[in-house]
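Chain X:
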Amino acid sequence: MSQNNIVIREITQADNVQIAAVIRSVFVELDAPKVGTAYEDVSLDKMTETYNKPKMAYFVVVNNQKIIGGCGIAPLEGESETICELQKMYFLPEARGIGVGFEMIDICLKKAKEFGFDSCYLETLPFMVGAQKLYKKVGFEPLKASMGSTGHYSCNVWMLKHL
């Protein structure tokens, strides 16, 4: 795959169906729990509307008109206004291992600083080892307990980065 055709941009209404399909396909591919995870979030089918609010943004990775991944930033529900959450970061296999995840996190964290957040929280599944390595590489540190009220009780790896 040529990286020359890869574009990262904010989500648009026309992207809703594709990004929902990408996220769900990653859960199926990894045989990940569908209950207590982003898989069953009602926002999945209306991502543009969900992230079209203050201090929220969602970005998609596009390769030749095909969405191959995405990631967003939003206030962490049930926590201080200074803490945001890195949300719904999922990539198709063809988008992995080529630096797109690193670039996507960078874009999201810059946006978080722009919004005035001091810290960024995330949660993931224990077997998503590649993602955890990336999170640690960009400065996220493991936590002993969850923060906020995400509803994702199946995600039991929690991390935080001070911005």
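Chain Y:
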Amino acid sequence: MSDTSTGSGKVVVNRSMSLDGFTAGPGDAMNWIFDFMGPIEDEFPEIMAATGAMLVGRRTYEVGKRMAENPNKVTPAYDGGAEFVLTHEPPDPPDPAVTFLTGDIGEAVATALRAAGGKNLEILGADVTGQCLRRGLVDEIMVYVLPVLLGDGTRFFSSPGLARIDLEPLDSTRSGAVTILRFRVRK
């Protein structure tokens, strides 16, 4: 696994989540997250400075693309480095700013970590997160718990067949109404 003492980055799941465990609302809606962005925007420069690449799933990529096409005043600029999308079906035509990967999750993580250049690899998307956790590829999980109940949508993690994973709490902070939790995945 990655090792920060040798300069290689960590594999970090970084997610916003409603109190009832959803990362997206019905229809993949994520606009509710921006209701709480003000207090947590202070965290972004530090996270971006530590992040060298992002690995996302195709659905998360499509949601992000829709959000970028319809920016609003509360949508923050976010540059997490090189963007990799793990998919069974790359778009036609492909987005030249994104690298689409179609192979094994372990190969995808290794490719994106190399591109991160010693910085962290940020994992986004419920399915990609589940695949990484099942394979023991995640070093840390950072969760922004937002004070809202969505009632339905995409769960933070829904992966049948996953064995128990123990986490070690690293940090718990509050920024406005948002609680930020950080855990190390115990190996």
